[in-house]
Design a protein that fits this description.
Layout: H1 3-8, E1 16-23, H2 27-35, E2 40-47, H3 53-60, E3 66-69, H4 72-80, E4 88-90, H5 95-107, E5 115-118, H6 122-131, E6 139-142, H7 150-164, E7 168-171, H8 174-180, E8 186-188, H9 193-215, E9 217-224, H10 231-235, E10 241-244, E11 249-255, H11 256-262, E12 268-269, H12 272-276, E13 282-289, H13 292-309, E14 312-317, E15 323-328, H14 339-346, H15 350-360, E16 367-368, H16 370-377, H17 381-393, E17 397-402, E18 413-417
Parallel strand pairs: 1-2, 1-3, 3-4, 5-6, 5-7, 7-8, 12-15, 13-14
Antiparallel strand pairs: 9-11, 9-13, 10-11, 14-15, 16-18, 17-18
Helix pairs in contact: 5-6, 7-8, 16-17
Length: 419
């Protein structure tokens, strides 16, 4: 079974792969802890310089379920570059790590009257110094924040030595350590086993929760004044199927993932307005659950709440009798499509979806036909149609009309694609 097939399996106990990103000497330490954890395995992705982080994520995004960074620096670089499309966590260097380093320095006879420390939170440094019996003004600190680079960290420690007569530099960056050790006494911090364990546990929980959410069933009951053959088109962006129950009622069947994305984390209902242009009464009750029965019960309750809201309303029902009234129209700052998750659902590479996203940025309203897609990417039109259908099933494309002018035979379908 290849990696793609393995990730498609939706068993609760399936193995998750964490891409461990960091300097070459720390990656094995963190990765070994991952491999010792049941149902987890590590993909080792070491770099020589922090600036290689983004390239590693882009190259290996299809091979992992989540990212585990050995420290805050590569994580911050990846987030700033918007390269993180999967669950991610970094190993935090706690006060315990610093305390252990101070203990070793003291045992070796180092003068700790004045030290310089980068990256760590100043408040935690101060607390740790107090625990070690050192005055709070012992340390000169530097908080890591982009666009700070390794050379800036080196410059900080050199300036601290020149200005404050620091005797020891403590750094979290391997690249800075390699330079500083030629200039002054320096210690490089490494995460403690507890810090590593905490990061692994947090990431495992986050990743499994995310996968569980994608697998949850979402159902919706729709009440209209009359039958509406265009309803499937308007609700198509939710990535599901619309079934007519009777003259005025419809059932929507989908999953939580597309519903969460389209509603911008359950805030707005952009599909309400186009339906309301044809109907004075539009009431939608949506429900999420671990089974179809649970989702239907929540949707039924939400529909009752929607009726109380007025003629045009959409309500989402969840566990513990929690109901969310969705605002009409699109929500500003809606959550962008997660290419990593979409690639996994489609069985496609993230690079292909990234190319498609770049192509669509030049299209008005992100509208495209199979013929236009085929011409742009040099593929057969039938291959482009299959791609659009796969995107539609995943909730990332919706058919919005046909192109009839100057066309013979069956008119091409126009899709609005959101990747």
């Amino acid at each position: 079974m290849d990696g793609r097939q393995r990730r498609a399996t939706n068993r609760p106990d399936r193995v998750l792969t964490f891409g461990v990103v960091g300097p070459a000497d720390l990656v094995p330490r963190v990765a070994n802890a991952v491999d010792r954890t049941p149902a987890l395995r590590a993909r080792r992705l070491p770099y020589r310089q922090e600036q290689e982080t983004v390239r590693l994520l882009e190259k290996h995004a299809d091979e992992v379920d989540a990212w585990l960074f050995t420290g805050v620096v590569p994580h911050a670089i990846a987030v700033a570059a918007k390269a993180v499309t999967l669950p991610a966590e970094h190993v935090s260097y706690s006060g315990l790590t610093l305390l252990a380093a101070l203990f070793r320095l003291s045992r070796s006879g180092r003068d700790l009257s004045r030290i310089s420390i980068d990256t760590l939170d100043p408040a935690e440094v101060s607390e740790t110094l107090s625990e070690a019996g050192l005055p709070p003004d012992t340390a000169v600190t530097m908080v890591y924040d982009l666009p700070v680079r390794s050379r800036d960290v080196v410059a900080f420690h050199c300036e601290a030595r020149a200005k404050y007569d620091t005797t020891v530099a403590i750094t979290c960056l391997r690249s800075a350590y390699d330079v500083l050790r030629k200039e002054m006494p320096v210690v490089r911090l490494a995460p403690s086993p507890r810090d590593i364990r905490n990061a692994i546990d947090a990431l495992a929980l986050r990743t499994r929760n995310r996968h569980h959410s994608d697998a949850q069933v979402a159902l919706g009951f729709v009440e209209l004044e009359r039958a509406d053959p265009l309803l499937q088109r308007d609700l198509g962006q939710l990535g599901g199927t619309v079934v007519q129950l009777d003259e005025q009622r419809y059932l929507l069947v989908t999953t939580r993932g597309p519903l969460e994305r389209v509603t911008a984390d359950f805030q707005g209902a952009p599909f309400l307005e186009p339906i309301a242009k044809r109907h004075k009464v539009v009431r939608i009750g949506l429900g999420i659950g671990r089974s179809a029965g649970e989702a239907a019960a929540h949707a039924s309750r939400a529909l009752t709440r929607a009726r109380a809201q007025g003629d045009v309303a959409a309500v989402l029902g969840g566990p513990h009798d929690s109901d969310i009234v969705l605002t009409k129209g699109a929500v500003q700052g809606a959550v962008p499509t997660d290419l990593g998750r979409l690639a996994q659902r489609l069985g496609m590479s993230r690079a292909t979806l990234q190319s498609l996203r770049q192509f669509l940025e030049g299209r008005e309203n992100r509208l495209v036909t199979a013929a236009e897609l085929a011409q742009a990417f040099g593929i057969q039109e039938r291959s482009a149609r299959r791609l659009l259908k796969r995107l539609e099933r995943a909730g990332a494309a919706v058919a919005v009309g046909t192109l009839s002018e100057g066309q013979m035979g069956r008119p091409p379908v126009i899709y609005r694609v959101d990747v």
